[in-house]
Amino acid sequence: MAPAAATAATAATAATAATAAEPTYSCFGPTVVDGDTIRCAGKRVRLSSIDAPEMPDHCRPGRRCTPGDPFASKANLQSLTRSRRVTCREVDIDHYGRSVAFCSVGGKDLSCAQVQGGFAVRRYGSLRC
Length: 129
Hints:
By secondary structure, this protein is of the alpha+beta class. Helices cover 29% and strands 31% of the residues. The chain has helices at 3-21, 70-81, 110-116, and strands spanning 24-28, 31-34, 37-40, 43-47, 50-51, 85-93, 99-105, 108-109, 121-122.
């Protein structure tokens, strides 16, 4: 391979590796928006594969919203993340521009914790708990 071609191939490989590494991020004590959404590392993050009850006036007409107590769902997610390091692996961007991610605290998946605690339901993808 010619030196210029080798340099271009190396640059392309490095760019691909950098892109593959970008979707993982972490933050300390994220802001909890509701039972399935946090703000972490400057991003609005939707927890992957779950749906939690909507806060009052957030369930749009015609939409089937998850039943349950939105305040209890939010409080549980706050208790799981308060003063803790949260690590997220982005898997998609939703139609609102939010990062859709699997997030964890100390190795515990937050989507699984919300479902197992009865604070959210499985939806929108594959959740392995």
